[in-house]
Amino acid sequence: MKKLSFSLLLFSAACLSMIYFVANLAEKEIKAALSDIQNADFSTQLLSYERGFFSATAITEAQINTDQDAPLTFKIITTIHHYPYQAVLNNHIELTDTTMAQKAASYFGRADWITSVETINLLSQLTGQLTVIAGKYESESESMQSKPLVLDYQVDLKNKKADLVLNWAGLVGTTYGTSLRLNGLTLTSHIASLSIQDDYDYQIAIETLEVQQENTQSLIEGIQLTGNSQQGQKVDTLDTLNDLSINSYQIKNETIQTFTKNRLKLALTGLYQPAFELINTGSDDPQIIQQALNELVNHGAQLSLSTLSSQTPWGEIDGELDLVLDKGASLMDIIINPYILFDYISGDARLMLPVTLLDEPLLAESLQMGVMTGFLEVNEETLNLQTSFQKGELTVNGRIVPL
């Protein structure tokens, strides 16, 4: 009996020790994580953290910057329960602006329209889920119905890595004769380093996107957008890759035109990272934006459009482009005299168009001009452009064009 009591005492002491350890771990990681989330679009501030043995309460203010003058500000009251193996966080989220909070409650039909639950385990792994319920709004000229949204995420708090999956059932909206319907949006992303803003990859998938305006209907099916951003090979440079594919794009008015197997793959290599990030902040100061653009152009980069293809009603379109902008170019000098750009760029381009486009009224005149000047070569089924620009010399379809 004494051995059993002693064993129970040891077990209880071990559990209490683990609870104390988890409480310390949770407080440390929560405070560290909140201090790391500071950028131009989203920021957080821990207002208070009151900790007991079995539970704690944290109050946080989060701001999301929008195109409006005032950012969206949320107050998050987090109740943290300490267990021997993990901490469980229940987040009560509310808008601090009373008017905005009332509008949101009216749209979603309840005040607790956004909820979040998270856990932190002994290995500093945070797992969470954020849910936004369905909402509805109607007036004489407009209507909007949004379906539920669920965001699942896992964060390695120790190694500063994260994975997230967002599933949104979609929305239906109408305004002044134009209607929009989006079905099934999924976003997955892996963030390789939370401390480096541009080190991530992502994939976005949309089942259907439909737009109806007067007598014209556009239907896009099977949208897939993948990409990544990472540090370049050179110091202070950034490499990005984006790959867009669309299974079907249909325009219906008096006739039906369908474009299938649409794909665009674009890579930007060697972008000057400080200037690129400054532009992405969305600053309204024209001097700051102009300075960033000057630096971006001056440092040079490489643009590679490795895939541009579509199966159109007239036939296949296929093309590619590889363009290098050398260092040293001045944006202001180029604006004053665009011909200066020829001293800094080199590259190759190829484009193949269906010859039946020559019969399209909207395109016939410009395409015929391309044929007459030799920029487009006419074959039995295609119009072709093959051009190269190297060291100030332009070659089009094997013929040197004076500049």
Q: What labels would you give this structure?
A:
22% helix; 403 residues; alpha+beta; 22 strands; 22-stranded antiparallel β-sheet
Summed up:
Helices cover 22% and strands 54% of the residues. It has 6 helices and 22 strands.
Describe the structure.
This protein is of the alpha+beta class and 403 residues long. It contains six helices and 22 strands. A hairpin with a 3-residue loop joins strand 5 (114-121) and strand 6. The radius of gyration is 28 Å and the shape is globular.
Describe the secondary structure blueprint for this structure.
Blueprint (H helix, E strand, L loop, with lengths): L1 H35 L5 E10 L3 E10 L7 E11 L3 E10 L2 H11 L5 E8 L3 E8 L2 E4 L3 E5 L2 E8 L4 E15 L2 E14 L8 E14 L2 E16 L5 E16 L3 E17 H8 L5 H14 L1 E12 L2 E11 L5 H6 L8 E10 L6 H13 L3 E2 L3 E9 L2 E4 L2 E3 L2
Antiparallel strand pairs: 1-2, 2-3, 3-4, 4-5, 5-6, 6-9, 7-8, 8-10, 9-10, 10-11, 11-12, 12-13, 13-14, 14-15, 15-16, 16-17, 17-18, 18-20, 19-20, 20-21, 21-22
Helix pairs in contact: 3-4
Number of strands: 22
Residue runs with pLDDT of under 50 for 5 or more positions: none
Query: What is the alpha-carbon Rg in Å?
Result: 28 Å
Structural class by secondary-structure content: alpha+beta
User: Major sheet, described briefly?
Assistant: 22 strands, antiparallel
What quaternary form is this? single chain
Overall pLDDT confidence:
87
Residues in helices, as a percent range: 10-25%
